[in-house]
Amino acid sequence: MTPHLPVSSHPAHHLLDALPPSPHHRRLRRRRRFCPPRPRASSSPSSLRCRAAAAAAPQPAAAAARTRVFVVSDLHTDYPENMEWVRRLAVRAGPPGAGEGFDALVVAGDVAETRDNFARTMEALRARFDAVFYVPGNHDLWLRREGGRYVDSMEKLTALLDACSELGVDTGPRTIGDLGIIPLFSWYHKSFDKEKDVNSVRVPSLEMACKDFHACQWPLDLGSDDEALALYFDKLNDKNNDAIEEVKKKSKQILTFSHFVPRQELCPEKRMLYYPNLPKVIGSDYLERRLRAIHDNAKDGAACHVFGHTHFCWDSVVDGIRYVQAPLAYPRERKRRINGGQGWLPFCVYRDGFNPEIYPAIWSDYYNKNRREPENTQLAPWVAKYFSKYYGPPVFAKQTESG
C-alpha cells in the first residue's frame, strides 16, 4: 500500500491537496472569484464547450471562428464525478472538421491513474473534439492499481502513447489552422526550487508527502535521481526537433504545453503553502529552457504555454510568454471552490488567434499585482493556523541551522 499522511492528522494527505486559500480568502469567497468566471449561458450539459468559448470572445465573433483551441489539465477521471464531466461534454457532429469550425483540445496531463480509464477518457474526448493533444502527467504513470501489468513506469508510458496512437490522439507537434501546437514531455527535479526554505516548522518529507515516490517505478539506470529523470523526459522531445521546426515555419502563433511547471514564479511562495516543500516536486528547468527556445522569435501575444500539476488556476504573462493552467482537479477541491473548475472548462484560449484578455484566477491575480518575496519565510496566517491545529505547539519550536 502506498504510504501517505493519515487524513485524521493531515487533511492534505496527498501532496497536491496541500492547497492554500486566497491571500484575500474571505473577500474572494464572497465574490466567488476563485477561477475564471462562469459565462452566463445555457446550463444544459451539452452546452459546456459553448459556454467556455463564449468566455473567450464576444458572441458575434463566435459564428465566424474557424479554429478554436480549448485547454484543460488534471482530469483525474478515476473519480466518477470527473469521468461524468467528460461524458457531459457535447459530442462532435460528424467526422473531424465536418462542422462549421475546427475544435481542438489540449490535455496537459494527469488524465487517469489506470491505463483502462485513460483509454476510456481519451476515446470520449476524441468523440467530442476534432483533435486532441496530450502529454503524460505523474498520475498517468502510477502503477499501484495496474496489477503488475507493467514492469515499470516507462513501460506504462509506452502503453499510453500506443493507446493515443490507436485513438488518434496527438502526442507530437501539429499545426491547426495558423496555430502550432507542441507537446513537451517533462518531469520535475528538486533543484528546480531556488527559493529560501521555510525552516520555522517541520514538514513531512517528500517521500512521505508525494505518492510518486511509491506509485511510480523507474529503470535501474535512472533510479531515484530526479534530475536524471527530468533530463530523460526532456530528451524525449529531441525526436520531434524536425517536426517542431516545420510547425514553427507554418504557424503564426505557437502554443506549447506540458504537465509540469516551467517556472517557480507560477507557484505561490512557500510561506503561502500548506506544504512548503511543494516547489521541489513540481517543475523543470529543462522544460523552461526548451519552451523558450521554441518561442524564441515569437512576437508579442503570439506565444502561450499551458501547464498543469499544481491545480492552481493561473493566467499571467512572464517575459513575453503567456502561462495558463486550467485544471479540472479533484471533486473535493471544486466543492470547496478553491482551484479547479467545472462549468467554465474546458477553457478556450484560442479563437482564430489567442484571446488577449487575461482571465481572473486567485493566485496569478495576486502576483500580477504584488511583488514576489521569496526571502520572506514568515508563514501566512492560514498556514500558521494549519500547522498549529494539526501538529501542535511543539512543531513551532525554532529549528537550529543543523535542523
Automatic annotation (TrEMBL):
<protein>
    <recommendedName>
        <fullName>Calcineurin-like phosphoesterase domain-containing protein</fullName>
    </recommendedName>
</protein>
<feature type="compositionally biased region" description="Basic residues">
    <location>
        <begin position="23"/>
        <end position="35"/>
    </location>
</feature>
<dbReference type="Pfam" id="PF00149">
    <property type="entry name" value="Metallophos"/>
</dbReference>
<dbReference type="InterPro" id="IPR029052">
    <property type="entry name" value="Metallo-depent_PP-like"/>
</dbReference>
<dbReference type="InterPro" id="IPR052963">
    <property type="entry name" value="Pantetheine_PDE"/>
</dbReference>
<feature type="domain" description="Calcineurin-like phosphoesterase">
    <location>
        <begin position="68"/>
        <end position="154"/>
    </location>
</feature>
<dbReference type="GO" id="GO:0016787">
    <property type="term" value="F:hydrolase activity"/>
</dbReference>
<dbReference type="InterPro" id="IPR004843">
    <property type="entry name" value="Calcineurin-like_PHP"/>
</dbReference>
<feature type="region of interest" description="Disordered">
    <location>
        <begin position="1"/>
        <end position="47"/>
    </location>
</feature>
